[in-house]
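Final report, results section. Input specification for complex C-07:
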Amino acid sequence: MPKRTDLFESDPDDTREAIMKATYDALSKHGYADLTIQRIGDEFDKSKSLLYHHYDSKDALLVDFLGFMLERMEGTIPLEEAAAADDRLRVGFDHVFAEILDGDREQFNRAMTELRAQSAHDDSFREQFTRNDRYFESRVQDIIEEGIQQGIFREVDAEQVASMLVTIIQGATFQATTSTEPDLDAVRTELDAYIESRLLDDD
Amino acid sequence: MPKRTDLFESDPDDTREAIMKATYDALSKHGYADLTIQRIGDEFDKSKSLLYHHYDSKDALLVDFLGFMLERMEGTIPLEEAAAADDRLRVGFDHVFAEILDGDREQFNRAMTELRAQSAHDDSFREQFTRNDRYFESRVQDIIEEGIQQGIFREVDAEQVASMLVTIIQGATFQATTSTEPDLDAVRTELDAYIESRLLDDD
DNA sequence: AGTCGGTGATTGAATATTCAGTCAACAATG
DNA sequence: CATTGTTGACTGAATATTCAATCACCGACT
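Structure output:
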């Protein structure tokens, strides 16, 4: 098994996927502000003109790219149904924090942050991220509700707690990508303390 | 008192301040990706060339602008020494959430988010935001330590809790500016629940 | 089997636009 | 007069986008 980003085939068959990978590489390398069609073309083994054969504009390409990325991200979240709710929560957060801290993903994470920041002035971006958030939040909410039914968690407002948890993840990601020396270990530890003191029903 | 953003004089005497305001307006209107010297000049009642009389480059202008913004932000955080620690915490968060939710500040918040996102690929930006975070986090940490000494709070790791609180604020801000329908009321309510269950020493 | 016609993929060069930065000149002010 | 503020026109480098022209393949027709 070759070492590579787990988001892409080593040799993408599909043209679209090849374009997505080229965009990903260019975005990681140069950042959103310096992302040009030329640079995407440079990471692409076909000509840059070909990009316009598949997309109407740079903007259309980027919108498609964002959808592609978010879809893949949703695909990577762990979904074991087996364990107890509190364990599922912890496993999920372990996964998320591992991704945030993974040095190999640093550039990707930064790129996602930049992409998301575009939502501030781009509605189509904003809608996509909002949908992604909703999906993610629902998964968390499910786990919390399950935990309540299992008698493991207190009878909290599951939606409200899920909102908070997603906000924390978002804040941690944002900090990790835009701050030097963010103390994410502290946040992770405190997150467990939060779950313990707020959710766990110790009887 | 004329209605306006509280960040600027209605008629800035200082040229620098006028440039800052023009930059702010251009950034709010077009977003960081489409922020050009031309557009800053358009919001400026003097010519765009004059900008180069005051700054060596667009980059230098933007760096100065960021410093200007962060300075103003630090100036607006409330610092009453009087009350009990838990009240000070709540007052502080009320202030922050009011700013996040204030419709008049929406553009400002978005502008800050976009600026911060630039830190992903710009070191000088990142350093400035990191310094700002540190300052903010210290204030929160002070309050928590004070609360512990007052016997109001449990003997938690103040630095760790402060990290979490800053992360939550950051996440809330990020969501407010990049998501449609973010449920910030839920986050605010849950934040109180967190403080209650994790910090408050009920004896 | 072999040829013809069509279709989508692909390319390199050309075009039109945008943008940061410069400059020489003009205006105001002391 | 000298200094400082101010301007509009200008430039060269990028950048997005277009376009005319190949190329590779495939199905139909003889």
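Residues 36-38, 49, 52, 57-58 of chain A lie near DNA strand D (CB under 10 Å from a C1'). The CA atoms of residues 20 and 69 of chain A lie 9 Å apart. This concludes the modelling results for the funded period.
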